[in-house]
Design goal:
Largest sheet: 7 strands, parallel
Helix content: 40-55%
Order of helices and strands: EHEHEHEHEHEHHEHH
Strand order of the largest sheet: 3-2-1-4-5-6-7
Strand content: 5-15%
Number of strands: 7
Radius of gyration: 18 Å
C-alpha cells in the first residue's frame, strides 16, 4: 500500500518522546510540518522539546506526561492526546530493556517492562486502529527490535517482549492493509541512546550494525511513506534477522548466550 502520505497540518502522537529515538521522531515529524502530542514520564524534557519544535518549525504541540507502566495509563493518554485532535499517526516508541539472569532480575520490574513494551503498545494501537479505520487513513509505527527475532539469554523477557511486538505489528499490517491504515514494524539494531544505559547493554567501540537515531527514524518514515510493513535499518542488521531465522535454533540461542555473557 503505497501512495501519497501527508504530514503537514496533521497530528501525530509520539510516546517515549523525551530522548533517543522518540525525540528524533518528534524532530523529524515537526520538520515535515506535523503537529505533535509528546508523551513520556519526564515532563520537563517534553516541555523543552515542545517549545523548541514550535519555535523552529511553527507546529502546534501538546505535552502529556505519563508512565505507561501503570495500568490504564495508555487509555488516559489516548483520551488526552486525541481530545479535539484527530490523530493521523501513532509512534509507539516507549519501551525499555533489562539485562541479567532472569531469576536475578526483580519480577516486578520485568512485569513493568512487559506493560510498557507490550500492553501499552497494544492498547494504543487498538485505540488508533479503532479511530483510523472509519476515516480510511492513518499510520502506526511500532518500535520493535532485531532482538525480537530470537530468544536471547540474559535479555530473556526483553527479547520476548519485542517478539510480541513483531508478531502483533505484522498481523495488524495485514488486517488493515485494505482499510487505508499503514502499520510499520521498526526493528532497530544497536543505537547509541539512553536506552542502553537503562538496559545495561552499553556497547564497545563501533559495534557491528550501529545506527544513529537519525538513521533509524529516516528509515522508518521512508517505510511509512512507501507503505512498507517492516523495516530493519542497516544491512548488517537485516542480514542478522535473516540468519537467525534460518539457522538451527539451538545454535542461535547458544551464540546469543555467549555474546551476552561477554557483555556481562
Amino acid at each position: 500500500m503505497g501512495g501519497a502520505w501527508e504530514y503537514r497540518g496533521r497530528w501525530g502522537l509520539v510516546t517515549g518522546a523525551s530522548s533517543g529515538i522518540g525525540e528524533e521522531f518528534a524532530r523529524a515529524l515537526a520538520a515535515r510540518g506535523m503537529n505533535l502530542v509528546l508523551a513520556a514520564r519526564r515532563e520537563d524534557r517534553l516541555q523543552a522539546l515542545a517549545a523548541a519544535l514550535h519555535a523552529e518549525h511553527g507546529v502546534e504541540t501538546a505535552v502529556v506526561p505519563v508512565d505507561l507502566a501503570k495500568p490504564g495509563a495508555a487509555g488516559v493518554l489516548w483520551l488526552e492526546a486525541s481530545d479535539g485532535r484527530p490523530l493521523h499517526l501513532l509512534v509507539n516508541n516507549a519501551g525499555f530493556g533489562l539485562k541479567g539472569r532472569f531469576d536475578e532480575l526483580p519480577a516486578e520490574r520485568q512485569t513493568e517492562m512487559v506493560r510498557v513494551n507490550c500492553t501499552a503498545l497494544l492498547e494504543l494501537a487498538h485505540f488508533a486502529v479503532r479511530d483510523m479505520r472509519p476515516r480510511g487513513e492513518g499510520g502506526i509505527i511500532n518500535v520493535a527490535s532485531i532482538a525480537g527475532y530470537q530468544p536471547i539469554p540474559y535479555l530473556a523477557a526483553y527479547a520476548a517482549s519485542k517478539a510480541f511486538v513483531v508478531a502483533l505489528s505484522e498481523a495488524l499490517a495485514e488486517e488493515n492493509r485494505e482499510a487505508g491504515v499503514r502499520v510499520v514494524t521498526l526493528n532497530p539494531g544497536p543505537v547509541a541512546t539512553e536506552f542502553q544505559d537503562v538496559a545495561g547493554t552499553v556497547f564497545g567501540n563501533d559495534p557491528v550494525g550501529l545506527r544513529t537515531p537519525q538513521q533509524v527514524v529516516a528509515a522508518a518514515l521512508g517505510a511509512l511513506e512507501r507503505g512498507q510493513r517492516t523495516i530493519t535499518p542497516g544491512l548488517v542488521n537485516r542480514l542478522s534477522t535473516y540468519v537467525v531465522r534460518v539457522s538451527p535454533r539451538g545454535v542461535v540461542i547458544r551464540t546469543a548466550k555467549t555474546i551476552m555473557k561477554k557483555m556481562r
